[in-house]
Amino acid sequence: MNFVVIVFLACAVGQPDHCEDKHLQFAWQGSLKQCVMAAQPYIAQWIGDHPQWMVKEYHCEYPHTQDKADAGGSAGGGGMPRSHWLTR
């Protein structure tokens, strides 16, 4: 079974400049592009559970991609700069 992570920027509703990266990992059989298309219901559920936050942007990547990039390893193209994130 393969896994994918939805990485999103969540900002506090009362303080829009206070933002945090959040991660949702789940089993996935499709591509990263398909994950981006399917991510909205998962993000909507998270927002429903955390109404004090709003989501500004998101993307999908494979687990531990950023860890490898930070360690100087190959990111495998999964870690994307913020300029390539989908914004809402």
Summarize the structure.
By secondary structure, the chain is an alpha+beta fold.
The tally of helices reads 2
Q: Output the radius of gyration.
A: 13 Å
Distance between the termini: 30 Å
Spatial order of the strands forming the largest sheet: 2-1-3-4
- Overall pLDDT confidence: 82
The beta-strand count equals: 4
Query: Main sheet?
Result: 4 strands, antiparallel
Helix content: 25-40%
The topology string of helices and strands comes to: EEHEHE
- Summing up helix and strand content along with how strands pair, one would put the structural category as alpha+beta
Beta-strand residue fraction: 25-35%
Quick tags:
elongated; 34% strand; 4 strands; alpha+beta
List the SSEs and their pairings.
Blueprint: E1 3-12, E2 19-27, H1 32-49, E3 53-61, H2 65-70, E4 86-87
